[in-house]
Amino acid sequence: MPEVYATRRERLRERCAAGGSAAALVTRPANVRYLAGAAPLGAVLLLGGDEDLLLCGGPPSGEAAEGRPDEALEVRVLPRPGGDAAVAAAGLAAERGADSLAVEEHHLTVSRHRALGSVAPGLRLADLGGAVEQLRVIKDEEEISALRIGAEIADQALGELLESILVGRTERHLALELERRLVDHGADGPAFATSVGTGPNSGRRGHRPSDRRVEEGDFLSVCLGATYRGYRCEIGRTFVIGTSPADWQIELYDLVFAAQRAGREALAPGAAYRDVDRAARQVLDSGGHTEGLPPLTGHGVGLEIDEDPQLAPAAMGKLDACVPVTVEPGVHLPGRGGVRIDDTLVVRPEADGGPELLTITTKELLAL
């Protein structure tokens, strides 16, 4: 898809020109991959007036996790190992006659920014800001296809785990098994560190698996994701261990499920980010859970697991079509456990059937 990368770079070039910069230096790995097709370790992209260059510390490996560089893009390896490709790129920009260079200040360290200025003192450094991140928000169908396959892999790994014996196994063991299954089914790797919480640990956002063992009567919450061709999806489910859940578990699960459904139904082109958050949060508030709720209801996904937009109370902006997001409300009761339900969806207009659900593992409260 060389023309896709060329089109993306051209859109960024137009933004740079409008801001008065003749060249741009992209250093954030996800942004490099978005524009160049690959992001070898330490690689940067130099965007010139009519010629672009991918500078790498070493030859691209060609591995799926790294991506493959756009064949139309010149790739240059630094002559000496250990050099900084960003500093070399700034020197090249100056040699090519650029008088200004837009850089990703939010990604550069202070010392690295100073090094750019010292290698090319005549080069005016401007801030590129989040220009590439803004371009990444709306996905094309090939990107969505990669997310869809990643979601299928995550669903498959989770489904297989649920068919195994769980009682007596540790959170850490279950998390490692899930990550192995992701790779077995074709993922580049996990999209993030898999979270498995049992009993009092269940429902905690970002819980790091411990050596606690699964017991009868526990809530078991799982959050995992697969990376496929660089794109990352996310799924979270909560189950009960044993033959029948307790009344309090049913009540809490039904509440979080209703909140998650409200958030999903609020996804539509033109919907304000904060309104999606409010739709889910109001359900939890009505159930008496106002304290200790997650800071957001969901977020964008793509080449990174946590991208714009942020579906949060103070978030500004509105959804567009073809934007993949998570909807992941949860409630955790200290000392008892909790529920978290998490899906990855793509915003679609009502004429196209509304939001497209990528993660399809059942949300029924299963007793395992």
Amino- and carboxy-terminal Cα gap: 44 Å
What is the oligomer described by this structure? Answer: single chain
How many separate helices?
9
Q: Estimate the strand proportion.
A: 15-25%
Report the radius of gyration as a whole number of Å.
Answer: 23 Å
What is the 3D shape?
elongated
Strand arrangement within the widest β-sheet reads 4-3-2-1-5-6
Total strand segments: 19
Question: Helix content range of the residues, please?
Answer: 25-40%
**Element order: H for helix, E for strand:** HEHEEEHEHEHHHEEEEEEHHEEEEEEE
Biggest β-sheet strands, sense, barrel: 6 strands, mixed
Structural commentary:
The protein has 368 residues and is α+β, with helices and mostly antiparallel strands. 33% of the residues lie in helices and 20% in strands. It contains 9 helices and 19 strands. The strands form 6 sheets. It has a 6-stranded mixed β-sheet with strand order 4-3-2-1-5-6, sandwiched between helices. The protein is elongated and about 70 Å long. The two termini are 44 Å apart.
Write the layout of secondary structure elements.
Layout: H1 2-18, E1 23-26, H2 29-36, E2 44-47, E3 52-56, E4 74-77, H3 85-95, E5 100-103, H4 110-119, E6 124-127, H5 131-136, H6 141-162, H7 171-184, E7 189-190, E8 195-198, E9 219-224, E10 226-228, E11 231-232, E12 235-240, H8 247-265, H9 273-286, E13 298-300, E14 307-311, E15 324-327, E16 330-333, E17 337-340, E18 343-346, E19 356-357
Parallel strand pairs: 1-5, 3-4, 5-6
Antiparallel strand pairs: 1-2, 2-3, 7-10, 8-9, 9-12, 10-11, 13-14, 15-18, 16-17, 18-19
